[in-house]
Specification:
about 30% strand, fumarase, two-stranded antiparallel ribbon, 9 strands
Length: about 200
């Protein structure tokens, strides 16, 4: 099966055929953007210094290092995703204000993000945890850095990427959230298993 590669900038139409559970790859640009950057935009009303309209953000605190004799250039060493749920309280409004189209992180996100993705036609994707060095190999160049006063993990690193992934789509533009759907399935299986176990260990007190 051919790889499904999305290239930024993206439109709502580009995401219509993408569904929760799909595996995609991303080319173009992605910006690392996590807790403090979300707080600055939403709580402090500060304009994001990077235009992510039609673009992608990555919930990550990467490890970068200066490239010797490069006049301020940096290279990506490791870029593992951080827990997306930490941004849940901000993400719906973040999507609305920035018109970002792809959000990448670790683990699922909740109902507010799901609503934001449906209202503004964006998707949330999961990058497999534990693959931070592999992710770094997909970064062709760090083209810019903003809000460096926040320190390395919270800086907005603007990365040019090629087939960044694999990314598992967890929330699509149609109102589906695969983590929430799976919770129902797993809880049903748990209840069935618990009932069966209890029948066989009822003698234990």
């Amino acid at each position: 099966m051919d790889k499904k590669v999305l290239t930024t900038p993206l439109t709502a139409e580009d995401l219509e055929s993408i569904h929760a559970g799909d595996i995609i790859y991303l080319s173009g640009h992605i910006v690392t953007c996590r807790d403090v950057a979300h707080r600055r935009l939403i709580e402090e009303g500060r304009e994001l210094p990077v235009d992510v309209k039609g673009g992608a953000i990555l919930h990550a605190g990467p490890i970068v290092r200066p490239i010797p004799d490069s006049d301020g250039k940096y290279e990506m060493i490791s870029v593992g995703p951080t827990t997306s749920m930490r941004m849940e309280k901000f993400e719906r409004e973040f999507i609305k204000q920035t018109d970002v189209k792809v959000i990448v992180g670790k683990g699922g996100m909740g109902e507010e993000t799901m609503k934001g993705c449906q209202e503004n036609k964006a998707i949330h994707c999961v990058f497999p945890a534990g693959c931070a060095v592999v992710a770094a190999t997909c970064v062709e160049e760090i083209e810019d850095s903003q809000w460096m006063d926040l320190g390395m993990p919270e800086t907005l690193w603007v990365c040019r990427v090629k087939e960044f992934g694999p990314l598992i789509v967890s929330i699509d533009t149609h109102g589906r959230n695969i983590f929430e759907e799976n919770k129902i399935i797993y809880n049903q299986r748990k209840d069935e298993a618990t009932e069966e176990i209890c029948k066989n260990v009822s003698f234990i007190k």
